[in-house]
Amino acid sequence: MQPRKLGQMPAKAAPAAQEECKTEQREPRRAEAQAGQRVVCFMEAAHGVYVPCLAVVWCCTRVFVQAPSGRQRVHVLAALHATTQEIVTVQHLTDVTAETVWELLRVLAGASPAGPITIVRDNARYQQGALVQERAQNLGIELLYLPAYSPNLHLIERLWKGVKKPCLYGRSSPTSADFQAAIQQCIGQAPSDHLTELESLLTLKFQTFTAVPVLGEEAKVTSSAAEKQQQAHVSLFPKRKHAQKEVSAKAA
Length: 252
Known about the structure:
GO terms for molecular function: nucleic acid binding. Residues 1-29, 232-252 are annotated as: Disordered. InterPro entries: RNaseH-like_sf, RNaseH_sf, Tc1-like_DDE_dom. The protein is an alpha/beta fold. Strand 4 (117-121), helix 3 (130-139) and strand 5 form a beta-alpha-beta unit. It is globular, with a radius of gyration of 23 Å. It folds into 2 domains: 15-51 and 66-201, Ribonuclease H-like superfamily/Ribonuclease H (Nucleotidyltransferase, domain 5); 218-251, no CATH class. The protein has helices at 15-34, 98-111, 130-139, 155-168, 176-193, 195-201, 238-251, and strands at residues 39-49, 73-81, 87-92, 117-121, 141-145, 218-222, 227-231. Mean pLDDT is 80; it is low at 219-232. The strands form 2 sheets. The protein has a 5-stranded mixed beta sheet, sandwiched between helices. The chain is 38% helix and 18% strand.
């Protein structure tokens, strides 16, 4: 036993549905993509709010950044190529709609070589309309929807987290136009400037939660002797608890 940081999982996720999607739908297409027989892209929108992202910096005195109101947003709909890590984006200042999705699908169809194309996406309303379904079918694009509450199966979720830190944390954007330009520049330069980080971050390995210990529930612990059932135990202050044990032992 040792101090460990808690992990998180989607509270409303269905682990069985995620496992089925991963093994029966995703794995065959992943194998085809790695063999060069299919193009697989992960599509999702990011909604950047024009507010400062605070960070820890080296300084002699505490430094402050001016904080805008946060009423302005930058909406970026992007598609991430599963094997080449190429990023294709469509950016809007208003909102992401079915027309935005159609625009990106058209770009992907024109940029991809002859062969089947699969777009992995979540269940956002603007991605499920009849317009998107019809035009994707006309372009010969397969739309593969993830189970509800499955960010752990969405590769582009890792991209957004990886891009946000070097792009926005500890930086000041005087205007919303500067904020928009910073996001677009960071996304555009990510495959070249952050190639090493992306290669380790965007691996085609996805975690599911069919057999993990959950705080407050019974957890299965496998030992060399047998499988035992025990209550998941968490110590929030392990060092302090250890010190108290030492003091009690000396007092005795």
